[in-house]
Amino acid sequence: MNGLSHLDDQGRARMVDVGDKAVTARRARARGELRCTAATLEMVRAGKTPKGSVISTAELAGVMAAKRTADLIPLCHPLALSQVDVAIAVEDALPGFSVVATVRTEGRTGVEMEALTAVSVACLTLFDMLKAVDRTMTIGAIHVTAKEGGKSGAWEQI
Amino acid sequence: MNGLSHLDDQGRARMVDVGDKAVTARRARARGELRCTAATLEMVRAGKTPKGSVISTAELAGVMAAKRTADLIPLCHPLALSQVDVAIAVEDALPGFSVVATVRTEGRTGVEMEALTAVSVACLTLFDMLKAVDRTMTIGAIHVTAKEGGKSGAWEQI
Amino acid sequence: MNGLSHLDDQGRARMVDVGDKAVTARRARARGELRCTAATLEMVRAGKTPKGSVISTAELAGVMAAKRTADLIPLCHPLALSQVDVAIAVEDALPGFSVVATVRTEGRTGVEMEALTAVSVACLTLFDMLKAVDRTMTIGAIHVTAKEGGKSGAWEQI
Amino acid sequence: MNGLSHLDDQGRARMVDVGDKAVTARRARARGELRCTAATLEMVRAGKTPKGSVISTAELAGVMAAKRTADLIPLCHPLALSQVDVAIAVEDALPGFSVVATVRTEGRTGVEMEALTAVSVACLTLFDMLKAVDRTMTIGAIHVTAKEGGKSGAWEQI
Amino acid sequence: MNGLSHLDDQGRARMVDVGDKAVTARRARARGELRCTAATLEMVRAGKTPKGSVISTAELAGVMAAKRTADLIPLCHPLALSQVDVAIAVEDALPGFSVVATVRTEGRTGVEMEALTAVSVACLTLFDMLKAVDRTMTIGAIHVTAKEGGKSGAWEQI
Amino acid sequence: MNGLSHLDDQGRARMVDVGDKAVTARRARARGELRCTAATLEMVRAGKTPKGSVISTAELAGVMAAKRTADLIPLCHPLALSQVDVAIAVEDALPGFSVVATVRTEGRTGVEMEALTAVSVACLTLFDMLKAVDRTMTIGAIHVTAKEGGKSGAWEQI
């Protein structure tokens, strides 16, 4: 046994059998960020630029992407998500934006991938909406910050 | 004029009109990375773990995601891509993996978003295939490294 | 509390948490219509025009669209539908077509949106198949006619 | 010849051959409305309810749906849209909302179906976001208001 | 050079570069069959069973699937199809059904995969609609029968 | 009653009501093959040609397609699959490749269609990756080999 449950004995990729896992309430939270120049951030923060739309478009894209996770990640199980929330905040210190996604389901597998996918697509959407004014932006620091449910129980990291 | 072409005068999000832009050969390259523990990387590098499959699954997921970009990013134009290449390498120095995507089209808009989407989904897929052995991994440093074609011409950054 | 469950305190759009709602049998029915000229309807009714195909194509498009609802409506929850039925009838009185969709699931949220989506896409498909002969058609009167299951119980309107 | 180009001699549904049609600039505009109670509209207009988000979510859903038209309408040709714009306005007189979608392409077929699909899905999304407070809403008056390009030339109706 | 254009020097799967290929009119035709028992075929042929619907549902599924080819086949290029036609016939001699799909585009790559995908999904749909009465059916003999356009020119096989 | 549960009394296609069926563990296995020339097979088997990638790409495409079944087959119910495994083997005797797919769910309907779809798309992907060297290949012998769960119980055929 090699610890990588997505690969069988011969190394063939497959969608692992979760049919015998318990259906439990599962929740995951992921975080990421888009770094841009202070000037770009100022443009979004200032009155002239409709900040609300940039951020709300990206939040919505993240929510919708969470529902497409099993279509995008080859070996992810399809899950009926019961909640998706994506929150983007302006972060002067970066400068840039932070993105936090929370996903919940009642199912047989965790929802980390759904939360990470929501964060990734929200960041890509921010990039898309700002690339005309700043092409040096960087997406990063995407990771799972909390997880609940399933055999491994609750877990958290900053 | 606010410099953000995706938002109209009232701040309404829309897919901007590119109908009057010239059809030219366009190419973009993006880069990103997945950081993991040295132990995880060793497991992938070692013989027991089928490295080929982890990497080739993620490369393929990246290629397929590039074709879904306009479905995921709300205001992206659909484009008939003529080439998509995703290359993943083991990087001992991180430790982790580097992901480079190259995309080409003949069209009216650039393909940075397609390259960035390919990199992001390849990273997410690596994460998915390794999360059973390492849940502290981080996806980051996703940015455009080169761009050619269109009015703005060739451009490069490290 | 503002009564709009899709928007949180700050007005951010999100997919609301239904994880604590009960799984119950839910059913919804929606109705709509496509109005066309009497001449267009006659062409469909008459022998020369293969009416069956126009109607059966639109019915099938409606069924398939119901399964795509969560992909189209940003904040809809994905649901495993247990039944979808779309019935289109020629209505001389309009003149035009009536479309009725019935959807059923065992789940945590209602299926009105699935029924309304089925009706809408069936109407769009009728429009698509007849637009070569009539470009003044109108789609309308799309509404929910009945709903069962969940906390609010059974409900009906004409 | 029966005038219905989507059906062949035996009445079989097919995606008609447009390979010999000229590639021209094509544009279409469609319109529709969601009728609700004055109280619902007031809730959206008033300060407490985040109107911006309801409307911007529906506008974005309409833009994204336009890109999915060929996936939803069985015999529609896939088209590389060069512009999609969806504008929703509060209409006290209805009471309700008006939705106008404008779509543009360089292609071999018109884009009426894309404009109509954008309007329909924007209306469905408004419905979804307001159904918790008003289940008697009706979607209607969806029709093409203008069309340009192709052999039939420019055309308009109110 | 190994003759397999989808794999680069290191054996990495990629979507090959067709950006330098000429845009030409391309057409492909594919064929396949579903074999069933004579009793199943009789049930479809007889009056009681609505044959039209079984066949027309499968034809429509084939047309729609052709448009999804690049989504399903990892390394297929997205193409704007200009025609898709799927014709299913009852074949007493098999006994079973024959399926023929014709696809046309103006593009940089051929459309064999689109024609083969249309045939495959039409056969799967026939199977789905008849499996309640016959679970021993077999799908087979799926192959390309004709191809036109591109550097290799016209080609045909029975 | 005509035995074809997908068609109602008037012959209208619909997604049948499975809401009253029991949720049970269901499994299905399907098989198929791609026949090619011995020379093509030799090229894949030989060292120069990266066989692993051809086969692993097709296996992955099959797994992903299984999750899209309800999107492709008009009247299939959406199901949350708990396992998908696709195994491709080189078969000198054909010559060609055999493809076996195993699918498992906890649900109200069987998963034969998911297994058959996985096999079909894996075969199409093999075809796509080898068509540059062999255009006379044939996909065939696709059938269900085993089924478990539901009212009809276990069943097997070679």
From TrEMBL, chains A, B, C, D, E, F:
Catalytic activity: (8S)-3',8-cyclo-7,8-dihydroguanosine 5'-triphosphate = cyclic pyranopterin phosphate + diphosphate
Pfam families per UniProt: MoaC
Pathway in which this enzyme or protein is active: Cofactor biosynthesis; molybdopterin biosynthesis
Its EC number(s): 4.6.1.17
UniProt xrefs under InterPro entries: MoaC, MoaC_bact/euk, MoaC_sf, MoCo_biosynth_MoaA/MoaC, Mopterin_CF_biosynth-C_dom
Domain Molybdopterin cofactor biosynthesis C (MoaC): 15-150
Any single biological process term in GO: Mo-molybdopterin cofactor biosynthetic process
Gene Ontology terms for molecular function: cyclic pyranopterin monophosphate synthase activity
Positions of substrate binding: 75-77, 113-114
Positions of the catalytic residues: 128
SUPFAM superfamilies: Molybdenum cofactor biosynthesis protein C, MoaC
Keyword tags: Lyase, Molybdenum cofactor biosynthesis
SUBUNIT field: Homohexamer; trimer of dimers.
Function: Catalyzes the conversion of (8S)-3',8-cyclo-7,8-dihydroguanosine 5'-triphosphate to cyclic pyranopterin monophosphate (cPMP).
PANTHER family: MOLYBDOPTERIN COFACTOR SYNTHESIS PROTEIN A
Family stated for the protein in its record: Belongs to the MoaC family.
Name of the protein in its database record: Cyclic pyranopterin monophosphate synthase
Organism placement in taxonomy: Bacteria, Pseudomonadati, Pseudomonadota, Alphaproteobacteria, Sphingomonadales
